Amino acid sequence: MDLYLPAVPALQADLAVSVPLAQATVAVYLAGLAGAQLLWGELLNRMGPRRCMEVGLALLALTSLGCALAPGIELLLAMRLLQGVAAAAATVVAPTVVRATLGDADVVRGIAAISMVEAIVPAAGPVLGALMLPLIGWRGTFWLLASLALLVLPWVVRIAPRRLPGLDSSHDAGWLGLLRNRSYLRLAASHALCIGALLTFLASAPQLLLHSLGQGPAAFAVLQVLGVGSFMLGATQSGRLAARFGHARVVQWGSGAQLLACGLALGVTLAWGRPPYAVVLAYWMSFCGALAVRGPATFGDALAVPPAQMGRGTALLVLALLAAGSIGTQAVAPFMGRTDGAAPLFASVLLMLAASAALVWRYPRIRRPGAPSA
After folding, report:
1. Structural domain of 113
2. Are residues 254 and 352 in the same domain?
3. Which keywords belong to this entry (predicted)?
4. Residues 219 and 100 in one domain
5. In total, how many domains does the chain have?
6. Whether 208 contacts 283, CB under 8 Å
7. Which stretch of 51-60, 153-162, 188-197 has the lowest confidence by average pLDDT?
């Protein structure tokens, strides 16, 4: 999606469609990505990680080719929806395999490594996409995505296990069994609210910078770079901190740091009417650094369930965080075109962070399953 975003205006002009229809190519992809979480969570135990990735990457390549060759907006929208369904395989399989194959000493580092990649791509993707657009056009973006999917397919198939280690099919692997796990629900809800706060702020930041602070696109680029840098720095230390101080403490400390940063930003906004750009930068860097410390431990502990439930647990968690981000973004959207939109944005984010912190203030007791080597 990030590689594709700069191509949306060119697509609109080439296909002679309206702005809402062009933007719909992003919306339907996200709808497919969110809706397919439960599908892949259900298929993971039945098909195994390797087969899920074979099907997911093959479908991603085929739908990318379909987008590249689409003669009109109707087929393009259908292909983008299926692209989201295909991409959802990775969001379910990758963290599940990491949690199932790594021991407690390494799982935080493993999830942090995935998180670092996921932080780099949204920052680098639009830049790379904008640089390539004059050379290959919007259709070339999809040809590139198809090529990348086919390129990684043999490698992923080689390393992905056929079955999750320790999978016991006789265990209660249904959704109800997962929903009865209070520790999972609390940790999953806490992580979803935290990521929802991130997505809400990130999606609203361009409008905030423009209408409230009078800043141009360069200000958002700087915000992204500093946020990713802070996240990368925190992610390199998350495993070491979790091993030294325990998962509960790093999650609680990270939650507290995020609350403090957002509370200070809201206080400055209420006192001055609008926050200085430096305050927004300081808040975002603090938020991202704290997220990198608390996020992997929260995610890993939420998935400390029997292997038969891990796929569904991952799917439900990712669906929850996407939903939280979507709801938060829409809730603050009416305020983002105003000069005083910063206070509602920071207040909404603070509310989400407070709920997230409350869920882990008394950390759930984790029953950690044994994890054999990959």
Report:
1. 5-159
2. yes
3. Cell membrane, Membrane, Transmembrane, Transmembrane helix
4. no
5. 2
6. no
7. 153-162
Close Cβ partners of 74 (under 8 Å, ≥ 6 residues apart): none
Q: 261 and 343: one domain?
A: yes
DSSP letter, residue 164: -
Cβ-contact 233, 292 below 8 angstroms = yes
Give the chain's radius of gyration (CA, Å): 21
d(CA 76, CA 84): 12
Tell me how crowded residue 16 is: count the other CB atoms within 10 A of its CB.
Answer: 9
Sequence-ordered list of residues with C-beta below 8 angstroms from that of 56, at least 6 positions apart, any chain:
40, 86, 87, 88, 89, 90, 93
- Specify whether the CB–CB gap between 45 and 178 falls below 8 A: no
Q: What is the pTM of this model?
A: 0.81
pLDDT tens digits, one per residue of 225-283: 898 889 989 988 888 898 899 999 999 999 999 999 999 999 999 999 889 999 999 99
Q: Within a domain: residue 128?
A: yes
Surface-to-core class of residue 169, CB atoms within 10 Å of its CB (0-12 exposed, 13-18 middle, 19+ buried): exposed
Distances (CA, A) of 318 to 223, 234, 253, 267, 324: 25, 22, 23, 32, 10
CA proximity to 142, closest of 151, 129, 126, 124 = 129
User: Which pair of structure tokens corresponds to residue 35?
Assistant: 């809706």
Tokens of 312: 């569904």
d(CA 312, CA 180): 13
Task: Confirm if 93 and 53 have CB atoms less than 8 A apart.
Answer: yes
Cα angle 253, 355, 207; round to 5:
95
b/e 55-86 (16+ beta carbons within 10 angstroms → b): ebbebbbbbbbbbbebeebeebbebbbbbbbb
From CA 302, how far away is CA 190, in angstroms rounded? 10
| Three-class DSSP category at 53 | helix
| Domain CATH code at residue 27 | 1.20.1250.20
Q: How far is CA 39 from CA 34, 117, 176, 303, 311, in A?
A: 10, 24, 16, 18, 10
Instruction: Quote the crossing angle between the two packed helices 19-35 and 307-332, to the nearest 10°.
Output: 150
Amino acid at 205: A
Residues 44 and 56 sit within 8 Å (Cβ to Cβ): no
DSSP string, 73-99: HHHHHHHHHHHHHHHHHHHHHHHHHHH
